[in-house]
Amino acid sequence: MTQELLKTPLHALHVEAGAKMVPFAGYDMPVQYKLGVKKEHLHTRDAAGLFDVSHMGQLRLHGAGAAAFLESLVPVDIIDLPSGNQRYAFFTNEQGGIMDDLMVANLGDHLFVVVNAACKEQDISHLQAHLPQGVELEVIDDRALLALQGPKAVDVLARFNSSVAEMLFMDVKKLEILGVECIVSRSGYTGEDGYEISVPNEKAEELADKLTAEEEVEWIGLGARDSLRLECGLCLYGHDLDTTTTPVEASLLWGIQKVRRTAGERAGGFPGADIILEQIETKDVSRKRVGLVGQTKAPVREGAELFDSEGSKVGIVTSGTAGPNAGKPVSMAYVRADLAAIGTELFADVRGKQLPMTIEKMPFVPQRYYRG
Q: What average pLDDT does this structure show over 44-51?
């Protein structure tokens, strides 16, 4: 018996807007609208796109020990995270592999955590299994999550609450929009300036309707969300990250602050710390996540095998797109560590053809976060 797909609070709006709906992480989600993936992608980079990301998990951690507790499960500095800021983090397992990546915000009296839809149940169980006395985990199920992304996002959202314009990248605060309290962060998953807005379910449709009524805003589906994040070098869990991949292999060292590394004030103390810290020290890993740019016009998709000039298999593509703004096919891949240098030429097997690709620095297009 197939399980019935879950629906976000905005499901009816997507259908009304002519979205093509597909199953994603247990939900019936819009993959594209009438514009189509490429135009949606370009529109987000030029103006503003609205994404329904209500399928993601929203959680709260309450209690004086909440930051220390969460820090015991991630290799990230949570204790010193200032109030009104958020930070990228990832749960690790005892082998140093990544169980999920997440966003953690300090809202002063509690931590607000957003986890991936496909890992939601597993993450909740993981937190509950380690929950110490005095820390409470609250699963939020009465709020939708919207992402307004693109260079015009600030102009649009400031019409609803002018204080959003003063926020910087990774700031987060509680703000009133349409008469209800929303949790707004200046962040997103497109590489553009923009906001993520956690809004009570009963106001979600009204807010989405009002935002899409603004001239600059179009609905954007999962297809363009994927190509936008990939052009900006952002990982997708379950594709570019998984339980067998360490943060060092995944080139996510920027996410591990000095205070949690060897000789840091709070070094280690997270699952897989011995393995991860040793990899940081010795730089000894067998594979690395890299960016690849195609030398032909054919996109190289997930699952394509990579070969060196001798014909030996040296890696695999984990994400790939035509790269609408990059103007050339771009992919993310894991390759043998000794071949991970910028400028290395590799060959992707696409339907029996060996397509040349070059390792290039990510992001493939500039990230345009607003840092003031």
A: 98
For 26: left if phi > 0, alpha if psi spans -120 to 50, otherwise beta; the answer is left
Distance CA(83)–CA(107), nearest Å, equals: 6
Query: What is the SS3 assignment for 181?
Result: strand
pLDDT at 30: 98
Q: What pLDDT score does 189 carry?
A: 98
pLDDT, tens only, 350-368: 999 999 999 999 999 999 9
| Total domains in the fold of the chain | 2
- Can you say how many angstroms the Cα of residue 206 is from the centroid of all Cα atoms in its chain? 26
111 and 40 belong to one structural domain: yes
Which range of residues forms the domain containing residue 332?
286-360
> How far is 55 from 262, CA to CA, in rounded Å?
37
| Number of helices (H), then strands (E), in the chain | 8, 19
Question: Which residues sit in the known binding site?
Answer: 196
d(C-alpha 330, C-alpha 295), whole Å: 10
> What's the whole-number average pLDDT of the chain?
97
CATH of the domain at 320: 2.40.30.110
Residues 337 and 243 in one domain: no
At residue 1 the predicted structure's pLDDT band, cuts being 50, 70 and 90, is low
What is the C-alpha to C-alpha distance for residues 163 and 141, in angstroms, rounded to an integer?
27
The CA-to-CA distance between both ends of the chain, in Å, stands at: 53
Close Cβ partners of 254 (under 8 Å, ≥ 6 residues apart): none
Please give the annotated binding residues for substrate, written as ranges. Answer: 196
What local confidence, expressed as pLDDT, does residue 3 receive?
77
- pLDDT computed for residue 2 by the predictor: 63
